[in-house]
Known about the structure:
Blueprint (H helix, E strand, L loop, with lengths): L1 E6 L4 E9 L5 E10 L1 H5 L6 H22 L9 E7 L3 H18 L3 E5 H13 L5 E6 L4 E8 L2 E7 L5 H11 L6 H10 L23 H14 L4 H34 L5 E4 L6 H14 L3 E2 L3 H4 L4 H12 L18 H5 L6
Parallel strand pairs: 1-4, 4-5, 6-9, 9-10
Antiparallel strand pairs: 1-2, 2-3, 6-7, 7-8
Helix pairs in contact: 2-3, 4-11, 5-6, 5-7, 5-8, 6-8, 7-8, 8-9
The protein binds 5'-O-[(R)-(carboxyoxy)(hydroxy)phosphoryl]adenosine and zinc ion.
Amino acid sequence: MRVLGIETTCDESAASVVRLREEGGGDILSNEVMSQIADHAAFGGVVPEIAARAHVEVIDRLVERALDRAKMRLDQLDGIAAAAGPGLVGGVMVGLTTGKALALALRKPLVAVNHLEGHALTARLTDGVPFPYLLLLVSGGHTQLIAVRGIGDYRRLGTTVDDAVGEAFDKTAKLLGLPYPGGPSVERAAEAGDPVRFTLPRPMLGRAKPDFSLSGLKTAVRLEAERAAPLTSRDVCDLCASFQAAVVDVLIDRTRAALRQFRDVAGRPSAIVVAGGVASNLSVRSAFVRFAGESGIRLVLPPPVLCTDNGAMIAWAGIERLQLGLVDDLTAPPRPRWPLDPEAERAPGGRA
Ligand code: KG4
Ligand code: ZN
């Protein structure tokens, strides 16, 4: 089975062809990503209208390139998968409409993929991880601990009550005058910094419910920055290192809390999986390697290029759904909001 995946929910336009491997997992035959970073940099964040237009300009070429690199013709595909949300609706419409047009013209099945399910299932593409597993999803818009029990079967154990982790990286970078996108800038500055120079809070540490709160940490960075002003590059590096160390402590502690709750909803986890843009951070990755070693649990960290947004994860989610006969039709709507666990979202205080 070979599927084309299209991703346009945020600021990366991406297209990829993935083939199902007989022994499980998949082969990525091509993985084309075109980042719009330069288009948004001047604004310090993603501008939805600019994003949508940029997707329109490149998506055709990107799909062609993905097919060329995979040495494949459109008629050799078994299906078309396009991310249908959650995300910026203008961009989502570009990718989803492209997917629908291809599916219609080629008479191939269409799968309207939840972008978060793409992140959630990446570890099965790369490592064939069996269900159930604990997923820590940390991206620009989402911070969630989820019991992944099967395709379309997710139980959210915890989430953030305010900012997402990636958002906290982006805001911290902005207030320290570092370039957009913030995550990689903060990580680079932190390499040369002292992680214990500034004492920053670790919000929610020790709480039983595996929720997160990041806005207080970001405020603490701002207060320390104001106190130390004018900032030298040494100060900036130390602030970044101290911030990153606090985030890492929080991620590990909250994951530990989620592991304690996992058994009640899904039995024994086969692994911990960390996914989403923040999972490409090397400090985060090495902290999880240590934690998993100590806890004696398998850890799966998809390679950094499959942690940030990409088309391969959409193609793979398409393959998983097609195998179960889960196909969509041309009425599939773009969905700005689309929780993996709608029950958790409906619970009091559930929306975050
Ligand atoms: O998954 P992703 O590419 O897009 C979303 O679906 O949001 O995640 C993007 C987020 C941004 O907030 C970005 O700053 C953060 O992931 N990020 C990082 C790193 N690379 C990307 N955060 C920390 N360290 C990194 N190396
Ligand atoms: Zn994402």
